[in-house]
Queue: 4 jobs
Job 1
Amino acid sequence: MPLQLSPNYASGTFTAANRSAVVEAIRTVLLAATWTDVSGGVGDRKMDSVATADSLQTRVRLYDPGSGNCARIQFMSVDELQQGIDLFLLPTSGTDYTYFAGDYQFMILLGGSLSPGRFVAGGVPYLESFLSGADAPITQAIWCHGNTSSDAATIVKDSFRNRSTLQDSQWAWQSLNGNAWGGSTSGTGSQRLAALLRSHDGNLSIPAGSVQYKNRAAVRVPPRLMWGLNAADVESKVQGQLWDMALIHEAVAMDSTKTFEGNTWQAVTDSNTVDFGQASVWARQ
């Protein structure tokens, strides 16, 4: 299965010195990626993603709460019957946020930083044909997470910035066919990417090293996102594939770049030697 690329895509950087400026900067990014305004005004916007070929779509609220440290990002269903948790993003002055945004998902991070309140991501996945078939149809799937759990932005939560699995400590929300759940959770049902395991490592309690081809190139696979149906203690299942991203089985420094499949890609995950196969998330520039 090849990597899935959005028809419309925007990447680059922005700086935003206050909460409202963060909201307006993200809105500008999403408009460039063909999301549409739904309602609101300066400092409080609702926007819709493009619908995928399988009719998966999400709405996001970007807003300045009027006080506190962070701008807020809240994913929800388009009918707003399922409303997600707030994700927190600190304003930045003098340093730039990096964004990766396509028709169906977006991710924002601060270059060179693992600090809390400096990462958010979410959207709707691509469905491989068997995931939209009659035997187990997915008619709604939304995911999101950030790397801190409060406006204080002092607690670091697992995110794609430091790991490919959020099982130990996540601030995430997800909804599958109306089964919505999230918050500060840990467990087998937490968001994670389906990584390969080196069979000769044997002891499953020890994270494996990188997974390589004979020529020592790291194995690259589509980033298939997993989560449990309705709780963190429910076994994770693959719910779809992330757009404009790849999973590469080697630990590298965050923000490294490489070229493959006709595009330049940037390492989102920093030096992941914790997870099996050293799986690292990469985003299309």
Job 2
Amino acid sequence: MPQEDNMKFTLTLDRRVVAAIQKVLEGRDMNLYLQHLIVAHVINADLIDPTIGKEFDLKVSLLTRVHETARNIFRAQGFSPDFTEKVVRASEADPQWLDDYAAVVGDDPYKTGNPRKHKINRAIGACVREAIGGVVATSPNGKPILEPVSGSIIQKFTRMESCTLTTE
């Protein structure tokens, strides 16, 4: 099994720092914001190649736009179990977003079998769920319910049963 590009870790911050960051974010994803700050610091300290930072910035940009699209769709249409598919279809309808997605995956966005697509698509799904506080729908055996998709950059999405975000 190939090694993941990402490594998860826990970060503990003073509540006052978190509150200050939340004011700046205005509903955007804190995880992406903190990742961006850390990567920018590492690049500015000349600890990694700047091209890695450009790759990362493009991924963060994609996910930030997905997060914003999810919030906008939620405000306009509310929740539905196929919410992730709606957000992906709205995102891929934006030519610039689709070009950036193609650059991240390094191939035709609609082509299947690309391991880079799998990674970013999982991140997109997680970003959509985080944006609305989505709760994954599960089958009686406890497994997430996956729905097939055609004619999209994704081949399937995880159905949601509810969300915790309320209309603003």
Job 3
Amino acid sequence: MTLRRCWVRFFEIVLEQLDLAAELLHSRNPTQSRLALILVDNAAEYALHRYAVDWLARYPVPYQLPVLERKKLHKKRARVLGQHIKPKIAFARLQNAITADQATFIREAHEFRNQAYHAGRTHDSIITELATTYFSAFLRMLGGLAPGTIWIKSDHMLSPRVRQHLGDNIPLTISTENGIQSLVDSLERSLPVAPQTLSEACRATLEGWLIEIRYCIDSLVQDDDSVSSAAALIRDVQYWSCFWSNAPDEGFTLLDDGTGGAIVDPDQETEWKKLQEDMQGWRPRVSERTLRRWDARIDGLREPSKPGVLLQKYCKLVSEIEPFMKMLSHRCAAFDHYIEELLDDERDAKLRKRLEAEGS
């Protein structure tokens, strides 16, 4: 296949996938938005790969270089043309085909795609806005990744999805000066109007998490007699989570002491003592002051012109807030289970009294 034919095929694939992604985004359904995100991310990765293939084909490794130098360059090129997206992003950034923020955004958005596709993390609260933003961001970088000019012949078979964006004027010449922009405009028009921006969706998600965290704290302080204050609760949930996550998996093993009694396995007892010593210098990562700082940082998620920076800040906050929220949720669940056991015991006691009264 010639290079020109490869680029025609490139535009076919990209237009087909982006048009289908736009159609899926119209539903505003999280499942279909995840599929749209996967399609857009795949189109972006394919564009980066096609750009690298084209550039490296035009600039082969010079034979005049020493053998070791040539081997190093061939290894670097092999990494760029491999299966991982990060070397492709770095290469496109090195050639100034994309900006620094665009490179950051692709890396972060690709990680969201991996989580949605492989790890089952759906990100329903922001998935539609993320896919929509990725769609628009990719269109803005398409001109830098496309070749100078391609020609589409009149006998070239195009699908209806592709033809609606190229029009009926075929044979057609597409160049970065004019044709790309008309394609970008056509694809932009196919996108639905989003009710909120990505920054608004990110803020709403994290604000909802903080509301849930504060509700759990207030409920436990009010209802659980073992909780003396909000500060003590915040510290304790982190302490015990850290303690048990580092505790020996097998717990205690009781050994026969030779006299009919039992003793704790000395090796395990040493492990527990060491753990207790290590925990003496432990300091909590989250405090009441941290919650206030999170409020300020969430309010600062306003980077509409730099979606890469926005997504990076959002991911950082998620990595800090989510673990603490899970610890607190487990504490609330444990307290709810304790209350249910008390109610069950109370019901059993009443039932026994009633049965005894009936029996007498």
Job 4
Amino acid sequence: MIKYIPFLLAFLSLMISSGGSAESSVLMDAGKYIRVSILLLSVLISLILLFSYKRKIYYNKYLLLFLVFCFLSSIWSYDYITAIAKSFEYTVFVLASYAVIYGASLKKTIDNTKFSILIVVSFIFISSIYFNLITHGAPFLYSPVATSLGFSIVIINLYLIINYKLHLNMNYKLFLLVFVAMLLTILIGSRTSLLLVVVSFLWLLPKKNKLLSTLVLTMASIISLFLIAIFPNLIELIFRGQDIETLYALSGRVSNWTHAIQMFQEQPIIGYGYYSGVRHSATFSYDAYAGYEFSTLDNTYLDLLISVGLFGSILLLIFIYSGLSKLKKILKNYKYHNDEYYILLFAYTFVLLTLVRTFFAPGIAFAHWNLLPFLVVLILSERIIYVKKLQ
């Protein structure tokens, strides 16, 4: 359990309330001293654990180069303190992930990977519902936490679908699972999550069950449409009070993305400084953002390009691609689909869904709640590959 302490401390740091909004300056953060203390403690324990492990640790050079470049970007950043602080925070998350992955035998680490994902996801699910109940008096509705709540529903649904693959007699439970997940994402107004529920379902079911999967998805869709017809308010939840034009503009994202692309074209190689580039450079460069500070463009890839340019973005994307390709190779080498195979399939699909989801939301460019399990999965894939080579 000691190996999870840095992981839990890093996650706890995200819950420390900042002074005002999440976009306020690091220097204005009312809880900055507590948060810095937690992050420093996480780093200290991570380093002690990593140096105490007897097994060889395989560090990904592209991930380490990405971290170095994030720190270096403070040199040309609009706010060098913010760039350094956020680079340090990302480093904390990376070290905590390595401490988790190398803290036990490979078999035990694989078994525990699903819990690393589910612990974080379950906490977000419960805390989002609690927020809705306290703030709005209802657990499932469109609110500021809709995106996080929706994605937590997607991942819980993903885990249960994969569990179904181990118990193919659970046909009626599968139908209820898909229907409930679709209905919940409609109720909270998370359109991306609704799409991911459907995609993950079709992606994971065995080919021999295509007829069953089509039937289940069709029935779930028909019943959802029937409920929308009976309760017109459900369609309002999907549109979230927006007209067609706003819907096509992705709730205003397209306008922000257009400005971001223009900024990227002006300084494409090195960006405007890690994190602080996204928070400040648009305000300095475009009147449209005057007086508006933000921490994300609701697109993690644009966040990366604006922050660290093509050079830094390519480093992180190589690390991600490397981990995904290794996981895919590992899955193909399993002759029998045992429990371990399905755990890794769950981890692999979690990473894929995260990459899709973060096209419309933050997630992997900066320290975020789903960054920890994301890093854990990719680092695990490298350890498995190197151990198999040694064998």
